[in-house]
Amino acid sequence: MIFLKNVSLQFDQKVILNNVDFKVNQGDRVAIIGESGCGKSTLLKLILGFLQPNNGDVLYNGVSISSMTTSELRSMRMKVGMLFQSAALFDSMTVGENVAFSWCENQGEDYDKVSDKVNEVLEMVDMAGYADDMPASLSGGQRKRIGLARTIAMSPDVILYDEPTTGLDPILSTSIENLIVKLSKEFGITTIMVSHQKSTILRTVDTIYMMNDANLIYAGTPLTIEKSDNELVRNFMSGGL
Amino acid sequence: MSSKQLIRFFEGMGDFSLFFLRVVRGVFSLKFSWNRTLEQMVFMGLNSLSITIVTAAFVGMSFAFQVVKEFVRFGAAGLVGGILALAVWRELAPMMTGAVVAGRVGAAISAELGTMKVTEQVDALKSLSQDVILYLVCPRVVSLTIMMPLLICVADVIGYCFGFVIAYFFGSINPSLFLNSTQNLAGSLDILGGIFKGVFFGFFISIISSYQGLKTHSGAKGVGKSTRRAVVSSLIIVFILNYFLSMVIFS
Question: How confident is the model at residue A70, as a pLDDT?
């Protein structure tokens, strides 16, 4: 489904990714972990086609993202949603308008006609009754849930999560983690997550990749990662890095 | 200027040229939202009306005050109306409106897009399958290109009328003499030429400010920096364009 083939990327003289190679299949739940600035979020931007690799290729369903035309890229992005670290809600729109954005802008539907669908999606993320609120009045956790609702509304095949639980209290984190797992299990949505949160990673994914200094240094599962031979991986998981 | 700075300058120019071409293509594709364009026209045009009126009134009055004083001294009171009309319609109203809009609207465009950029809203738009140029930039460029000439029309009327008031009260210039002189010295080209400048001013102010906004990085400090750059670049381009357009239109 998504295949990063020997991807390298550098800005000026700084190497961000060095020969990164990994594959994600339909329905997989994958986390990419690593220190801040090691290139994790850049990977997500490459998958969405926001950035182009200097070497290698990013393939979506076998098609190279760098060779896609603008309209092909836009069609691809309809199938690959993203939950941003800050939720990135449009602050000039209400919560409902944010959720309905894809229906209104991509499918040309009237907001009034999709309000029932908006409420359904809001219910799914436990935010029913917030459709008329403005994003500025929401807490961090609520914003993330609305961000997720906006992504779900696109009916994506893949959701990319950029630090979905960072900065949230344990209760909110758990509710977001449950949502991620629910979306994956009930709708078969592929999950690719970038996170620092050990608890989130262990609860939500099946495969973990670790990055260090622009390289992918580990691939394993939540069960094996803490027993890894690699000291960097063990230190990261025990919080000692 | 070091070679590194020179390379950066040309890289920046190349980047801006590509952005410019994408915007022009987007505008002519007519695929942008007219509802959002109308919203922007209200924001940019109607909301800039009061500041345009105040500026034009005082520019017209200041100019008239100086001209009346000197022309009456040299016995050329009969030329005041025409000179005021030529100055206001050809140069003062377009340039002052351009400067006011560059400050008010240019800063607003850059700050708004810059804030959207640093809060990842621009990336969110892209991830929701939107074309940022069509969604954010084209409506702003089209609306300011339309509204700027209209604002200059208002500035023309206000500047001329307030200049007339000063000429009448401070120079005791006969109204019919004032109007006759305007008719003799100024023509429709002077009015239309000045208004026509507005098309270019509006287009360049909006495109430069959008570009600076979308290039923002480094948080709140970055937003301040790009806003400052947008206003300064827009002001400079207004003055440069004004000179060359005057050369072409009124030569």
Answer: 87
